[in-house]
Amino acid sequence: MESWPPGGSGPAEAGRRLRGLHGADLAASASLLSGAGAEAGCSAPAVAAVLPAGGSGERMGVPTPKQFCPILERPLISYTLQALERVSWIKDIVVAVTGENMEAMKYIIQRYQHKGISLVESGVTRHRSIFNGLKALAEDQPNCRLSKPEVVIIHDAVRPFVEEDVLFKVVTAAKEHGCSDYDLEFGTECLHLALKYCHIKAKLIEGSPDLWKVTYKRDLYAAESIIKERISQQICVVMDTKEDEEHVGHRLKEMLKNELNHVKVTSGRDLQQIILEQCYNFVCVNVMTSDFEETQKLLNMLEESNLSILYPVVVISVQFLDYESVPFGQKMGNLMQIREFAKEVKKTNILLYGLLVYYPQDEQKLQESLRQGATIIAALIKERNSGLIGQLLVA
Ligand SMILES: Nc1ccn([C@@H]2O[C@H](COP(=O)(O)OP(=O)(O)OP(=O)(O)O)[C@@H](O)[C@H]2O)c(=O)n1
Ligand SMILES: O=P(O)(O)OC[C@@H](O)[C@@H](O)[C@@H](O)CO
């Protein structure tokens, strides 16, 4: 049984070829394809999605169509695919792209390991692109891997932040609702098409503020900030020794909690589990050593996990050193290796930085360098600046 959330209702109305629906903020719409999967008693409708991605993004003002513009080095459309793909009850996703961009799209699917995606050629307008996607789902083509769905979600390829609950509401409404003049008054041209050609009046569903469309260049910056914030919600601190209250690593961890309100700061006791939970930020603490053994172990684990395929993972190798008792120059040779490590792991989308924290005997000075260290760590995680990888920052 598919994991359709509770509340899914009965079969679709027969005899209607296409039933247009629209989100309150114009983000998502759903159509019903007649007959398919609509047997009585089947509460989970067969759902597919069509993503129009055949536009040229003129208003963005850059040569690359906006759906292929990189955000943290990954094309925007890949984020949208990821958002739809994780919804287990969406069985097929059809993307409409221009013939010119077909190969680029295939590469994106392969590189970011997207599953269950079919491609069709887009049309000269958004509506034609959607129509081509719907045709691919409606036609009973021999050897076609697509199954005919009952409900189709139409979602712009340039709206990367769609959540499952909104999609669920839209799909449920597609099955349940009748008319609303209000929706037709305040909707967009999609609603008018639904009325004109299918005699269907649509229902508006309240969406979330994150459902906006990337249209102008500034929207790319906004999307990048939202993504950075989302992947900075958890930091794992890996200690080189047993963690106790007195350990400077523990104190740094507490400082980080103060610096980053609302961020979950955990210990790296069960790294495999933390990686599985998709934590994208690691602080590896070394006290009075200047090697990267612990950091390398962590990097190996991260590389094996493939965690960084979708988002850049930040690793900060922290070395606590007492520069007064141990001559700084003596340690430098070893520490400089970080530049090579960083270059190597950057290839797998891991951003490695070094941080030297002054570890004096004087308690007040120590407190000050811990505070500064926490500020630098917070900035590195929030910014994910790939230009600073391999640098040894000093607190
Ligand atoms: N012939 C077209 C035109 C648009 N779209 C898609 O429809 C969505 C929303 O359209 P819009 O924001 O207008 O995109 P563009 O047409 O690319 O932008 P612009 O109007 O600035 O050129 C986008 O995912 C876009 O790729 C499409 O599939 N086929
Ligand atoms: O051209 P605009 O940016 O105003 O709107 C594009 C919208 O029509 C499109 O994104 C759909 O969501 C709405 O039907």
From TrEMBL:
Q: At the top level of its lineage, which domain of life is listed?
A: Eukaryota
The UniProt entry, under InterPro entries, shows: IspD/TarI, ISPD_C, ISPD_synthase_CS, Nucleotide-diphossugar_trans
Ranges for domain D-ribitol-5-phosphate cytidylyltransferase C-terminal: 233-374
Catalytic activity, reaction form: D-ribulose 5-phosphate + CTP + H(+) = CDP-D-ribulose + diphosphate; D-ribitol 5-phosphate + CTP + H(+) = CDP-L-ribitol + diphosphate; D-ribose 5-phosphate + CTP + H(+) = CDP-D-ribose + diphosphate
Broad EC category:
transferase
A GO BP annotation: isoprenoid biosynthetic process
What keywords are annotated for this sequence in UniProt?
Cytoplasm, Nucleotidyltransferase, Transferase
A Pfam family this protein belongs to?
A: ISPD_C
- Pathway terms, separated by semicolons: Protein modification; protein glycosylation
Q: Example GO molecular function term? A: D-ribitol-5-phosphate cytidylyltransferase activity
Provide the Gene Ontology terms for cellular component.
cytosol
Q: Which SUPFAM superfamilies match?
A: Nucleotide-diphospho-sugar transferases
Q: Where in the cell?
A: Cytoplasm, Cytosol
Principal place of residence: cytoplasm
* Protein EC: 2.7.7.40
Q: What is the protein's quaternary organization?
A: Homodimer.
Chain's role: Cytidylyltransferase required for protein O-linked mannosylation. Catalyzes the formation of CDP-ribitol nucleotide sugar from D-ribitol 5-phosphate. CDP-ribitol is a substrate of FKTN during the biosynthesis of the phosphorylated O-mannosyl trisaccharide (N-acetylgalactosamine-beta-3-N-acetylglucosamine-beta-4-(phosphate-6-)mannose), a carbohydrate structure present in alpha-dystroglycan (DAG1), which is required for binding laminin G-like domain-containing extracellular proteins with high affinity.
Q: What family is reported? A: Belongs to the IspD/TarI cytidylyltransferase family. IspD subfamily.
Q: What is this protein called?
A: D-ribitol-5-phosphate cytidylyltransferase
Q: Could you tell me which species this protein originates from? A: Lipotes vexillifer (Yangtze river dolphin)
Q: What is the lineage of its organism?
A: Eukaryota, Metazoa, Chordata, Craniata, Vertebrata
Q: Which gene encodes it?
A: ISPD
